[in-house]
């Protein structure tokens, strides 16, 4: 199988620390040929640091170059996911786009449609799918240990975790707050356990009290006067088959833990908790609590990049697909709509 | 102040163990004059045990007797709350009725209206209102420690707590399952922190998988073939002022704890957890976790009976009122309706 | 089924506190008609206390009386198990004999042979067989959870638990020390998991250093000058199918825990620990630790007496049989022989 | 004292990471002059890495060279311990040989005899002898704190620790499995506390169920189809003075801990546990538990190499001697013989 | 030895619950012949309850009666210890007086002098001397384990333990606050470890902020307006041999623990903590922490009453003597004087 | 503001690891121009390591040079604090002097007077003032959370922490032992909470038993034969306003913890503990325990150096002033005097 040519769009931290190292590790399958950033100096510095041949500040120029990539890693800001992904697909590139898929349902749907018509892989970088705990959860579901899952509590809560850097509080750029940045991860995991169906009923509330009031931050200080997004979101999703998800996510909330990321999954045969992975079931007529004390840590970005390359190569993959991304984005939009009513 | 004359209707455990001892303890304010049960032998045995003068198997006979009571403790089955309470009010008695208020919203509303027109106290026995933790929660709310409460997670979960006795799985008698028996308690507490407003939007799901499948019980064994009610209920309530409640209740659920009864309360100034009572706020520019290690246990039934007598005597009282009971019953009905849609 | 008539031989604590209450609880199946003790005053006092009709100080007299019993509970000292059990069998009584079966292999073998020829039930009171943990261990073995068991570590250790009363340090009466009194229990459990086979090789060591030196006791003080038995015994048993048991038992040993009673069971599919019951296996390709947090306590003497009555009535029973007792006693004897070589 | 000249035979990990760094640290007493490995490239690479002058792929050539060593560190595979050690002794070198001494009792005995006749030091690298805990155990024994030791439980257990590299499952090369690789360490420590006497009775069982079945590994994956050695061994050793050792060792066993390496030592005055070091005794008429919270970690290989050099220089040393190695190897052989009977 | 005749003076709780039951338990040595209280009804009720023959409301009458006691238990209020003890001694009775000895140094000194001249036993009821922990501390001191003690930290602290009953806040009756009621106990223990010497230098501070401010009580509510004594006292005592004691005692202090009663003892060989008893020393060249996990609880009042009777019978006794009581009272007085300067 | 020129006097560890890195970090405000040490080689090596231009072995030469410094960091031995600080002030330099201020009260007083007359900043490097815990303690005091502080327990205890290097046991150089080296830190913090008043009464004891006896060290080994200072000091300080401090400090003491550095602060409204910072108060009529789980670690030397530069620049600063240093030294002297009486 010939090596695929990859290009990075967006020169931020996530390109530098996550995507490029993962691609480099997979050098038998993929070669990073170019990096493209609005700021050509940034692009060049990053290219030098990682020994990448080309740097661009204009993606179209890159597509026209001799080193036209086969696949794009889209690491731009949320509101640029759509234009850069569309352009890449138009240029017949596979795309691994950072999460969330887009900032509107319409965008994500169009992106999925173009990918389909172009017969290119469009995928989203929900790397938490690759944790050993989530892999084990899926195995337990597949083997019938859990029975049918009918309720999930999904949480991604921070006590005072409004980032003091980047654009996390800017609604135009981010498209939203805690839900768009954090909740989206855990919602993706929960949906994955329910065949990624579309809920038929959603009720949600969003808040911004702490974000607008300001105070002590645990991820740097934020500017309360520029806080435009929700700092907390609580939603109930009900599915056509009567399954349900309770989603709770926050940048800031007066709760004990600094960070609380978890799924509680309730099935007809057993329940499970994601972190640390535990099963609550029955055996020999008695109730059981089962722990898995020896799960091994893995590099989840590396695994997710592998999964994307597998998809590009037509192999089995658990990557978040363009279609899943479109469903997810539609749910997010409906959560915001419910909260605004 | 002359002593009030009390009569008990219903000769079960809750009369014997909770209400009569509490009334006896308050003998300066109240005298138990009669006990009334469908089964006259049961009534008489209970009367003898507690040195109560009269035993009846017909309430109307009691109302016509010389010892006509001033107040009734209604300890009958859920579906008899309505007829016996209505009859007591018609006979100009105050009523302390066991929870839930009734088995339909219409019943609870009529009960409240009759009490109002008769100018009698109708109250419900939600004794968890009297725990030192809930009292402290209310004090912290009143003093501004919490700021405005905007979200509450309310839980009354049992892992395998379908009672193996009584009528807990019979829908006709009970009116419902976990929500009607357990969730109602914690929902009452949550509503009490939000001025007992009516939510304008409700989305809920109910389940009966474990109840119908049977298995190991931790409160005796139940007959899975006669399981007619929900074993779990999850609901999201959204209020006109954008506050929200997430309610989770179960008789049976594949979760770790045998029993998990709690409120997590999120306010603009601080958050609080009910059990054990804890505050999560800020002080001197730093985040604080505050515990209250010396709360004293109290006899909550005694306190609730006192609160009822205070209401009868026209004094301040934190008892659950007829109006609150009507609101609560309406919410329960809407939760069931949402789940059935 | 007519009620069986039971008589107690031996008027000590274990009759008073364990056997008579259990029999009384099972009064639908059995009636205690007499109690027999060397000391007629003791016999009479016990009979009065428990409302038993007859008291004897001579067993033969009892067998000749009108109230001849159907079954005997033999609660005499270890060295009297043999004569009183033989006499009871000769008188066509079933016998539930206290542990250990006897003080020599020959005795236990003769007792089993006589019971067989008389077609009477002879059983031994190893009540630890009835703990919920051992029941669960057997279920897990039967269901294949454990696979084949190939090694067991069996422990009944006390740090300073030489009883300061009774005859526990008298070799003539007891037949031995820690092994005869404590180890016998846990060895019975271990053998029960290995089809109660006879080991073909045994190597053991016994000690009496602390017993003879004296010192601080945690179960009263003992007289070091009269200490005639082993205070500790360590044995390795190897079975024809290559399974093995490591047995450790002590009255006194310089170890941390005051009391340590446990089985560690190693099977081809999983391992298990008896107290608290835990499984160590594999699930979904990962190693698991499973706890059973809700085992209910039960009255193990009551269960064992039931099991004996079941056997007497020809029903299925997990009581320690006469044949098992004979095997057990032979193993004990071989352990002592190995230690003396 | 002139510096000794050392040569390493065997170019594996243990030479690279343990022995050479220890020798380098002791450069005032010893100089590493050569490294010898079957693979000359490996030898040279290692020599370069550690600035060692000479590299050989033939030991005899080394002995003939100008830089003939005074001492040899034998880091070859188990089945090469014998030939390379014999050849070194014949060339009048002291030898520090990796553990186990050899793969048969006969080999270890011959090695000891040649060393004696050549008046050279032959020692084995049981570096656990140098842990602060074992040093302290010996001090407590010497000072009488423990009294006489009469029973030792010695454990070196892994739950799933069959190494996924090297030759650990190859019987021809290794001579055995868990006992030869792991148990030998803890047995050496136990024997050291009992004057390194020879037991007069041994009973043992060995198993290979998990090793042959395969499954999840915690030290890489192993090839179940090539598993030729025991995965677990349980042995009871009885000594002429009635002391006893219970030895348990495993590569794979269904037990809770991933790794459990310990000695429980029972003496007439007190008991002790090795890890963490604790004493269980009596003081002022009361039972005591004593901890030693401030033991300092040390470099145990460095200490063991020092001990070897002390022996070479005729100074006092606690290194495992050739004679001890021969006893140890004979015990191992008898354990295997007992298990095979 | 003939039985001693005892009389109780003072009809409060401590007579009823502590002293009379202890004397009754020791009925082979002592007979309670009379009880004397200001309130004759109280005296008679107590006498009836405990089957004591005589009740008086006038001690002199009792001394003149036929049943003249041999010994007196003085359970009166602090300010009555002196007159009733003096009168008892004048009547040739031994006296066991409740703590503190008196409310002034002069009183305690006179009491000791009269006891000496009358050759009667005067003792004080410091029953904490009889705890197994303090007994063990003394044994460790006597055996040299501790070496010479040079510093003691003595604490009897309560967070909010101002009793809501009795006269604990009345200076005239009690003579002082936390020091007089609580600190006196632990100071007695500390002095007992230093040969009950008299310190030559004392520096102290006392406070009453919380007592006078009022607030939440954990031993009932107190009347802040009548709080006349110290709520906390901190003192440093320096002895002629350079030993020192740091004494801290409080009825109310803003500290974590509800109650903290302890001694930290620093000796030249080892340190010790009283509760739970622990030793911090050296063994085999390493630092040790030693616990005593099996100390048995005992009835300390019974032991102290025994100790008093032993003293009356001229036997060895560890009771607090009249001379020790005089020293203790003098120290207390000097502490108060230092705090007032 | 022009950059200040700094010079270091004393070439030891504290210059190399603490002061120079802090100054380098603050290079916008300060430039290190020279380093001066008795040993010119040491001075030069340090200068080279940190890229400092000049090295001297004579301070006067430095003052005469072109690069005359504006400020001096005095890192000399305790007994040289006085001469080098006086000389620096005479040369019109600001001085940050290591702790303790000096070895006598007279020295520290003269230093303060000269600094005042020269209008130069003289400050002492008590860097524990900058911990987030102490900053928070001061905020809680300032905001009234604590009310008035009336008692402080101040501890800096080591179990076996006599340093095995430097001059810590040499009285001439150090001026004292644990108090001079360790206690001085925690005393400075305590005084800071009490407006740095002078106590009017002091009682203290000092000891040297362990130091002179020798034994196991946890900070290297010390030479018991050269131990000239106190290994432990206990003092009680009483202030004119009746506040009090209990100070305990040790190099060596038979206590559990290896190191115990803390303040317990008792105020009229609440108490506080420094490490980890906790508040014990009242809220809503209940007692509270408040933790601050998210305090961030900071570089305390950097903060203290900043505070010193602020003082030099006439800005607000919480540095230990010359006047405070003089008070502190006077207290230390009085503690030693009290102990010697």
Automatic annotation (TrEMBL), chains A, B, C, D, E, F:
GFO/IDH/MocA-like oxidoreductase domain segment(s): 137-271
Pfam families to which the protein is assigned, alphabetical: GFO_IDH_MocA, GFO_IDH_MocA_C3
Domain Gfo/Idh/MocA-like oxidoreductase N-terminal: residue ranges: 5-126
Matches recorded under Gene3D superfamilies: Dihydrodipicolinate Reductase, domain 2 (3.30.360.10), NAD(P)-binding Rossmann-like Domain (3.40.50.720)
InterPro entries in the cross-refs: Gfo/Idh/MocA-like_OxRdtase_N, Gfo/Idh/MocA_Oxidoreductase, GFO_IDH_MocA-like_dom, NAD(P)-bd_dom_sf
GO molecular-function terms, A-Z: nucleotide binding
Name of this protein: Gfo/Idh/MocA family oxidoreductase
């Amino acid at each position: 199988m010939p090596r695929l040519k990859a290009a990075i769009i967006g020169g931020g931290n996530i390109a530098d620390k996550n995507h490029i190292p993962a691609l480099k590790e997979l050098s038998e399958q993929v070669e990073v040929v170019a990096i493209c950033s609005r700021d050509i100096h940034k692009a060049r510095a990053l290219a030098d640091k990682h020994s990448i041949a080309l740097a661009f500040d204009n993606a179209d120029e890159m597509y026209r170059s001799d080193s036209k990539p086969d696949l794009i890693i889209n690491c731009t800001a949320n509101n640029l996911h759509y234009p850069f992904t569309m352009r890449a697909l138009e240029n017949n590139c596979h795309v691994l786009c950072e999460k969330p898929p887009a900032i509107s349902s319409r965008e994500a749907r169009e992106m999925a449609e173009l990918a389909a018509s172009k017969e290119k892989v469009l995928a989203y970088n929900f790397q938490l799918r690759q944790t050993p705990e989530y892999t084990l959860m899926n195995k337990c579901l597949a083997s019938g240990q859990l029975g049918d899952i009918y309720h999930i509590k999904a949480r991604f809560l921070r006590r005072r975790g409004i980032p003091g850097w980047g654009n996390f509080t800017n609604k135009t750029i981010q498209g939203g707050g805690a839900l768009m940045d954090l909740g989206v991860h855990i919602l993706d995991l929960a949906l994955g356990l329910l065949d990624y169906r579309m809920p038929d009923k959603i009720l949600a509330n969003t808040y911004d009290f702490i974000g607008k009031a300001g105070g002590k931050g645990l991820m740097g200080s934020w500017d309360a006067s520029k806080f435009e997004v929700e700092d907390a979101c609580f939603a109930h999703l009900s599915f056509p088959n009567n399954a349900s998800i309770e989603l709770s996510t926050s940048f800031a909330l007066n709760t004990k833990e600094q960070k609380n990321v978890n799924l509680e999954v309730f099935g007809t045969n057993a329940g499970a908790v994601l972190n640390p992975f535990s099963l609550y079931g029955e055996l020999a007529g008695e109730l059981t609590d089962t722990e898995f004390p020896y799960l091994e840590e893995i590099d989840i970005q590396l695994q997710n990049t592998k999964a994307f390359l597998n998809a590009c190569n037509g192999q089995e993959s658990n990557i978040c697909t363009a279609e899943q991304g479109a469903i997810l984005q539609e749910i997010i939009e409906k959560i915001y709509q419910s909260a605004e009513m």
